[in-house]
Design goal:
Helix content is 38%, strand content 18%. With 156 residues, it is α+β, with helices and mostly antiparallel strands.
């Protein structure tokens, strides 16, 4: 039975084009809602870094900024957890949990760089500890059943 699960996992990873060690989906729901309407409304990309001087932080922000249209199309909001502050890409005023709550919830050390994708169901879908291309995030989202339904509804 373990072999079948391994084979299925390997096929999914090959299908998504992701390295096996980077895909760490978890089913633990978020303890604190990231936004009042986050669950079932938005997907969230959390980017954690110690300081704005971190080159990985700067590069990740640059890549995500360049993909703004694709982020919007996938109902994605970016939350930056930088030192002792949390910033959002959303233009709406929202109450966000503090950085210490998010770091504890996702088990992130204060000096650690990490990118996490949280689905509309509030569960962690992907985690990487290096800069990731937006296309990687989009491939994961586009393979989700909820996103498949959204794309079918958008077809003319």
């Amino acid at each position: 039975m373990k072999n079948i699960a391994f084979i299925i996992g390997a096929v999914v990873i090959l299908f998504l084009g992701l390295p096996p060690l980077k895909l760490q989906a978890q089913t633990k729901p978020m303890m604190h809602s990231l936004m009042p309407t986050a669950k079932s409304q938005k997907r969230v990309v959390l980017v954690f870094a110690a300081t704005a001087a971190d080159a990985r932080w700067q590069r990740q922000q640059e890549l995500l900024l360049q993909a703004n249209q694709e982020l919007t199309a996938r109902d994605l909001v970016v939350l930056g957890v930088l030192g002792n502050q949390v910033n959002t890409s959303s233009s709406k005023t929202v109450k966000l949990p503090g950085p210490e709550i998010l770091r504890e919830q996702y088990n992130i050390k204060p000096d650690q760089f990490t990118v996490i994708l949280v689905g509309k169901d509030g569960t962690e879908k992907y985690r990487a500890q290096e800069v990731i291309k937006p296309g990687t995030i989009f491939n994961i989202i586009d393979a989700m059943p909820m996103r498949q339904q959204e794309m079918r509804r958008q077809e003319p």
